[in-house]
Hints:
The complex is a heterodimer of chains A (about 260) and B (about 450). With about 260 residues, chain A is an alpha+beta fold. Chain A has helices spanning about 5-25, 45-50, 95-115, 130-145, 150-155, 160-165, 205-225, 235-255, and strands spanning about 60, 65-70, 70-80, 85-90, 165-170, 175, 180-190, 190-200. In chain B, helix 3 (about 55-80) runs antiparallel to helix 4 (about 85-125) and helix 4 (about 85-125) packs across helix 5 (about 130-140). At the A-B interface, helix 1, helix 3 and helix 4 of A face helix 2, helix 3, helix 4, helix 9 and helix 16 of B.
Amino acid sequence: MRKSHPVRRAVLATAATVSGIVLLLSLKPASDPGSAEAAGGAPPAAESVQGGARPVGDGTVTGDAAQTQYGAVQVRITVSGGKITKAEAVQAPKGGQSDQITSNAVPRLNQAVVRAQGADIDAVSGATYTSNGYKESLQSAIDKARASAPADTGNGAGGGDDAAQAQTVTGDVAQTQYGPVQVRITVSGGKITKAEAVQAPKGGQSDQITSNAVPKLNQAAVQAGTADIDAVSGATYTSEGYKESLQSALDKAGG
Amino acid sequence: MTTTLAGGRAARRQTMRRIRPRRSPAVPLLLAVGAGAAAVLWLWWTSTPSIADTTGKIIAAGRITGLLAGYLMALVVLQMARVPALERRVGSDRVARWHAMSGRYTVSLVVAHVFLIMWGYARQAGKTLSGIVSQTLTSIDTLPDMGKAAVGTGLLFVIAFLSIGPVRRRMPYDGWYHVHLLTYAAVFLTFWHQITTGNEFAVTPSAKTFWYGLYGAVTVLVLWYRIFTPIRLNLRHRMRVQAVIEETPGVVSVLISGHRLHRMGAEAGQFFRWRFLAPGMRFSSHPYSLSAAPRPDMLRITVKAIGDHSSRLRELEPGTRVWAEGPYGALTAQRRSRGKVLLVAGGVGITPMRALFETLPGASGDITLLYRANSTQDLALWGELAKIADERGARLMYAVNSPDGERPDISAESLRRKIPDVDRHDVFMCGPPGFAQQVYAALRDAGVPARRIHHESFEM
C-alpha cells in the first residue's frame, strides 16, 4: 500500500523513454563507415554482378551494391569512347515512402553523372541516403572500368577476341505483383552464355521463392537460348516477369 | 479445523510447506520483460547501419517506439490472459495494476510511433509538419496492411480514451468491459503492418520468427486460460445457486452447490469471477471472494450490495446456473512467513479474512482477527467468527464507530496496545482503499515490515 504517484510515474516514464531513445540515436554513427555488407541481407545480385563486369572499355559496368538505411543502391554505367554515356540504377530503395523518393532522385542522379562524367555529383535534396549510396556504387563502377582499362587498349586494334564480342544486355524491368524482375544476359557468338536476375522479388515468402526459381530460370534461359522457357511451378509471377525482362534483353541484343 | 503439530512427519511437512512463504515471481518476471525489451532495442540497433540527418533520426525514433509498442502490446494482452502463475502467485490485483500501467505506456508509445513515422515520411516527401495528415493518408493508402493498422489504432485510441479514470467511472462497468474486449481486434489488426512494413523484420528474418512466436504464444495462452479452462471447469463442476441468505442489512451470502468442488483447487482467501445465468445478469461477471473454505459440495460467497450487480444477488432463485472462472488471487496462506498472523478486515472485506481465519494453520493464540465496521449491526458473519475463535483459541476483536459517529482510533499505538507483539505478525488485510491505506501506515509505524503486510486492492 505504498502511496502511488501517478503524475511522478508518468513524468519518470516519459523522461526515461525519451532519454533512452535520444541516447540510442546519438550513439548511431551519422554516416555508414563503409560497411556495405554489415547490414546483412545484401541482395544476391551484388555477387554475380562482378562477373558481368568483364566487358570493359566500351560497354557496361555495374558497381557494387551500396547499402543504405532504406535499402541497397546499385549503379550501372555505360562507357563509350572513354565517356560515360549512360548511368542507371539497377537497384534503389523500394517500398513505402522510398518509391516516391527513388523515382524523383534517381533520374536526376543519372543525368548528373552523364554531365559530370564522374562521381563528383551533388546529392539530391530529400534523398540524401539514396544519393550517397548512389555515389558509392557509382564510384565502384568507375573504379572497375578504370581497372580494366589497360585490357581495353588492345581492343580497338586487335579486336575479335571473346571478351570483346561478349555483350551484356540488361532487359527492362518487369513489374510483378511481388516486385520488379530484371534480367541481364551475356550474349556471345549469338548465344546466351549467361543469364542472371539483377532484380527479383525480395522480402518475406519471396526470398525463398526467388532463391529457388531464379537459378532454374537462369539455366533454362541459357539452355533454350530464347525467352521460350517454362515457368517454375510455385513462382508463376516471378517466372512471367523473368520471361518478360529476358525477352526485352534479347530484343535489345538483337537490335 | 485446527492443525496438530503432533500429526507425524507428513502433517509437519505440510504445515512447514505452508508456512514457508512462496516468493512472488514478480521480480524474475520483470527482469524477463526487461531482457525482452533490450532484445527489441538490439534488433533495431543491428538493423540500422547509420543515421545521417534529422529526418533519419525522426524515423529511427518512430521505429524504436513502434517496436517497443509492438512488444509491450503482446505483454499487455498476456497480463489479462488469467495465467495462474500471474493470478495466484503475483496476485490478480497487482497484475491488473501492471496491465493498466503498461497499457497506458503502450498507447503513449503508439501515439509517439504514429506521429514520428508520419512526420519523418512527410519530411522525406518534402512536406512540412503540417503535411503530416496528408502523408498519413498516403501511407495508409499505399503501404501494405496499413489500412488494417489504421482501423486497429483508431480502435485502440477509443478504448484508451474510455479507460481514462473519469470517463470510465461514468460508464457502466459491463459496457466498458465489453468495449475493452475489442482490444483483441485492435491488436490483431495492428499486428500485420509490423511484419510487412517493419524495416527490422525485412532485414532480420529471425526477428519475424520471434515476433510470430511472441504473439502466437500469447494467443495460445489467452485461448487456453480464458476460454478452454473455464469451459472445462464449469462442465466438470456444474455449479448452481443453492440458497441466498441475508447476513446483515445489505449483505447477502450466496451458497453455491456443485460436483466435487474441492477439486477446483481453491484456497481460503481466493476469489472467482462469477456469472449468474439469470435474466439481466447473464452478461456480467464479477469477482467475489469465497467467505468460507471450499467444501466438496458447497462454496459460499458473501457480498455487500454496493453496485447494480451485487444488489441483484439477493433476488437469485435457488437452482440458477452459475458460471465461474477461477480460482484467482494470491492472498492465501502461502504468503505467510512466520507463526503469528493478524487478519485485518474492513467492512465486507471480511469475506476472504473469514475463510483464512478458519483455515490458516496455527496454534492457539497465533491467529488474531481485527474487524472494522460502521456499527455492531454491520458486523456480518459475526456469529460464525465468534464460534471459530472459540474453537481454535484465536483472538477476535472489532472496532466500530462510537454512538456519536466518531471513528475508532487505528494507529500504531492502539495496535501495539491491543497486540503487543504486532511487529512479529504477518498481516493479511482486506478492506476499502482508504481504510487499507490507514491501516497500512499504522502497521508500518508499529514496526511491521512491508514484505509481511499482504493485501489485495483492486484500485487502479
